[in-house]
Amino acid sequence: MTDELGVVVGYDGSPQARQALRWGAAEAAARKSPLTIAHAWQWPHHEWPGELVPLELVRRPAQRLVKAAAAGVAHHHPEMIIDSVTGRDSPSALLADLSGQAALIVLGTRGYGTLHSMAAGSVSGHVAAHARCPVVVLRGDPAGRGARDIVAGFDGSRASMAALDFAAAQAHRLDSTLHVIIAQRGRGGQADTHELRIQTQGQAWDRLTCRQHTHPSLRTEVELIDEPARAALLEAAYKARLLVVGARGLGEVRGMLLGSVSQALVHRAPCPVAVVHAR
Ligand SMILES: Nc1ncnc2c1ncn2[C@@H]1O[C@H](COP(=O)(O)OP(=O)(O)O)[C@@H](O)[C@H]1O
Ligand SMILES: [Mg+2]
User: Fold this and answer.
1) Which residues of 237-255 are buried (b: 16+ CB within 10 A; e: fewer)?
2) pLDDT tens-digit profile of 59-91?
3) How remote is the CA of residue 259 from the centroid of ligand 2, in Å?
4) 14: helix, coil or strand?
């Protein structure tokens, strides 16, 4: 895995995608990394049944769309390395494919959608589940709320360890406080007890102590909340500029790539959500 594409934004020209592009460009600037604008286009055979549509008729507008988007970003960030990729594919497949060379993928909550793409908004869930790098879904209005903290959900799982590392790096870069939440464990697996949560809190502090070496000015809070994880994190999201969770948790449901808590947050949180996979 490499990250030569830097921050990859899934772009379809919709207002949500433009918001994702602004966020992604600011993120690439903060990381001093390249920005890649990705757009998937598809053969519109549903619209013209039986008729031959020259491929160029679809390909060219797609290329114009990303070139125009790149020019817009270059205007604000003249020093940034900006690339664009178009692919004849489903948006989910293209972005999952690019994730192997990306540092981060940024998506709007929903785009224009086409007959080919899945139900509106499900691209984000699919990419969050399949990507090989962290994925940020731009929920809510990231500019409008003035929230400062970065909130991370921690359950002691491998993915939530990776989420904590990602959240610490973001908090350090953005000069935000990192607020770690340890909520009740759901049904299945070990039963939830206060002792278990104290133990998980210890794991969080150990992990944060490691991060403190690389990010000495990092400010952190760890909070135990006696509520189910989904409710606790949704509540905290109202005061967060970014909510960070692992793709999976401690649950044992095999075959699922996205846990139930992370899935719910990707679809309902009032702020941008980052989904991070275990390394
Ligand atoms: N009890 C919890 N407290 C805080 N965060 C949690 C808790 N449970 C889950 N999370 C967060 O949500 C992520 C995904 O977990 P989850 O959706 O529960 O997956 P699974 O179904 O595999 O358990 C975790 O990596 C963690 O970031
Ligand atoms: Mg769980």
Assistant:
1) beebbbbbbbbbbbbeeee
2) 889 999 999 999 999 999 999 999 999 998 899
3) 6
4) coil
